Amino acid sequence: RFVETFSGDALDTDRWATVNVAGTNTFQMADSVDGGFEIISGATTGNRGMINFGGIRPFDPQAFELISTYSNGNIIYGMYYVGLTTGNDFPASAVDSVSVEQGNNNGNIQLRTSIGSANTTVASTTARSEDVAKTFKLVGTGSNVIMTINGIDSTVSTTNRPTAKMQPAFMAHAEAGAGARAINIRYLECYNT
């Protein structure tokens, strides 16, 4: 069982790696009460910043639970991903992943499952939102992946589920040149079941 509270004055770099997927991004502890860790994408279109385990992938794609509390900034021309992945991006070709997806391209928060270049998104009934912390739970089994939001809204994906072991990851992505986008991560718990 892995638990991270994203508190203190610096990210635990014995656990976490910062990744400039595209462009130059900012990684810092938020200077606010219960702000957690903050990833701020660069302002240029396509800039993406991520934290992950640096390629260490201990979580079984068909027997895991992940719980996370986070908030994100502007959803217009920004995308935010929280979940598990085999690589250094969400979503990308040749990457297996399971993620909560929120941002410009979707009206409601979505569950995304990916195996290689094939992926599926399933919309929840919860509208995307800015600057409001939510708690998400992802559960992977042999037959599906289930996402719940604040313990209520439940969304299920049964297709394009990953088969390779994965690592936890968080990402902020700037789209369409509208400026930097930020995600604040407060809590993560992840374990194999």
Can you write the helix and strand succession as a string?
EEEEEEEEEEEEEEE
CA radius of gyration is 15 Å
Helix content: under 10%
Number of strands: 15
Distance between the termini: 10 Å
Main beta sheet, described?
8 strands, antiparallel
Structural class: mainly beta
Q: Count up the helices.
A: 0
Describe the structure.
The protein has about 190 residues and is an all-beta fold. About 0% of the residues lie in helices and about 50% in strands. The chain is built from no helices and 15 strands. It has strands at about 1-5, 15-20, 25-30, 35-40, 50, 65-70, 80-85, 95-105, 110-115, 120-125, 135-140, 145-150, 155, 165-175, 180-190. The strands form two sheets. Strands 1, 3, 4, 6, 11, 12, 13 and 15 form an eight-stranded antiparallel sheet that branches. Strands 2-5-14-7-8-9-10 form a seven-stranded antiparallel sheet, with no helix packed on it. A hairpin with a 2-residue loop joins strand 9 and strand 10 (about 120-125). The termini are close together.
What's a quick, concise take on this entry?
The protein has 193 residues and is mostly beta strands. It contains no helices and 15 strands.
What is the topology?
Layout: E1 2-4, E2 17-22, E3 26-29, E4 37-40, E5 48-52, E6 64-72, E7 78-85, E8 97-103, E9 108-115, E10 118-127, E11 134-140, E12 145-149, E13 153-157, E14 167-174, E15 182-192
Antiparallel strand pairs: 1-15, 2-5, 3-4, 4-15, 5-14, 6-11, 6-15, 7-8, 7-14, 8-9, 9-10, 11-12, 12-13
